Amino acid sequence: MKITRTTEPTRAERTQPRTGSAARSIATATQPAASTGGDSGRVQLSDLSSRLTQLETQFPQSSFDAAKVSEVRNAIAEGRYQVNASVVADKLLASAAQLAGRKA
Length: 104
Fold this sequence. Notes:
Elements: H1 11-15, H2 20-30, H3 47-58, H4 66-78, H5 85-99
C-alpha cells in the first residue's frame, strides 16, 4: 500500500479557474473546430450534474487527521505497520452484507 500525494488534482483544484498558459491551452483544446450557430458560448449541464452538486452540498467532505496520516505513513515506511487480518475480514463482511441489503 502506497500513501503519497498523487499528481491527480483535488476537487478544489479542479474547480478553481485557471490562469495563464494553462487556461489558454485548455480553452483552445475544448473549443469546437468550427462554429455553426450562435450557441457557441452557451453551456448546458445535465440533470446528473445538478444532482451531483446537490449531493456535494448535502454531504460535505469530512476532515481528516493529518497527524494520524503522517504517523501511519511513517509506520508503513519503517515496516512497523501491522494489519489485523480478522478486523479487516469482519469489516469487509459487514460492508458486503450492507451492500447486499442485509444487516451483519
